[in-house]
Amino acid sequence: MTTTLQFKYDVKDISLAAQGKQRIEWAGREMPVLRQIQDRFAQEKPLAGIRISACCHVTTETAHLAIALKAGGADAVLIASNPLSTQDDVAASLVVDYGIPVFALRGEDSATYHRHVETALDHRPNIIIDDGSDVVATLVKERQAQLSDIIGTTEETTTGIVRLRAMFKDGVLSFPAMNVNDADTKHFFDNRYGTGQSTLDGIIRATNVLLAGKTVVVAGYGWCGKGTAMRAKGMGANVIVTEIDPVRAIEAVMDGFRVMPMAEAATVGDLFITVTGNKHVIRREHFDTMKDGAMVCNSGHFDIEIDLESLGAMASEVKQVRNFTQQYMLTSGKSVIVLGEGRLVNLAAAEGHPSAVMDMSFANQAMACEYLVKNRGSLEPGLHSIPVEVDKEIARLKLVAMGIEVDSLTPEQEIYINSWTVGT
User: Fold this and answer.
1) Binding site annotation covers 186?
2) Residue 6 pLDDT > 90
3) Which helix or strand (DSSP H or E) is residue 6 part of?
4) 392 annotated ligand binder
5) 84: confidence class by pLDDT, cuts 50, 70, 90
6) What is the mean pLDDT of the segment spanning 52-79?
7) Is 157 annotated as contributing to ligand binding?
8) From CA 29, how far away is CA 10, in angstroms rounded?
9) pLDDT band (50, 70, 90) for residue 333
10) 225 appears as a binding residue in the annotation
11) Residue ranges of the S-adenosyl-L-homocysteine hydrolase NAD binding domain (predicted)?
12) Is there a binding annotation on residue 119?
């Protein structure tokens, strides 16, 4: 831990700052929505005096969110939400070039991660930007005295929203939480287009396999699953979907995919991708029946979707065969290949979502923080959707950046669409 620059930080190599700054600037070329918000924030200072602790993937895109928050007047610190997603040069640049305290090291162990969570809470945040709700959960369990400081939290992921709902159900979520994950301009772009492209990017970088002709099993047909299945199909893969929800299952069927239980899919799949946010979606009985050399990876959230503990117990040997690629030699004589240690393969083996995708997600985060501050004291505890007008404003800013115009209703149409007395 270093104390230069008048604040503490914990990054791997501060000398990487120049490289990180160059990459941050490159990402900014594809993030015009957040840039427009940052420009407005710099003038209006809607976050002046607000302490924000952000737990996010520390990437070039996240850097622009942190910069926008600071432009808005926030006193922000940033920690890593995932040990394999941190870009060390970006962390260094945020410290040196932008004066933002960062606590993130690529490959950090669990003890370091939990120490950084404590550091985020030591900042005594008024707003928590979370990715999986670990910081909020730690606050609720261990820092009750700080609850009075909290204006609210914003949550980026499906997994985090599930945890927040459970907290509210148990009566321990005593402040408002903005459901950034379910904003249209977030999940359309981030989950469908972002996860779809970046997951396959990570798989290809890790393995250099040809996807055309492969049988790819996608576990889960939420927005992430839809995007992943769509992109895999577009590259020539034969895609199977596994689901527990009958509505999503029939949707997958109508979209042209085979649907079957994982027990059946395990026997025919070449590549397995979990995108459920749940635990042990692929487990011992599935490993038992997989083909020799079957590959498994996760693009959901935590590294528990694949039961790696059971796989390790079944293995006589584990060896690294490529970067981010481990071969488990089973006592049965077969092998199973695990990508990215079962963590998010798009971040462990690649660079995560394209900047243009995260532009929309982080625009939602920035405006959700502004919304919490503007409505301080008037929002009830529990989950709150991003207001429709905020969602539409983000879409409008994106269209402006793309040079695209849309129609507007005529006065006659306004009257017709809002009336019940006018007939057809």
Assistant:
1) yes
2) no
3) none
4) no
5) confident
6) 97
7) yes
8) 28
9) very high
10) yes
11) 191-352
12) no
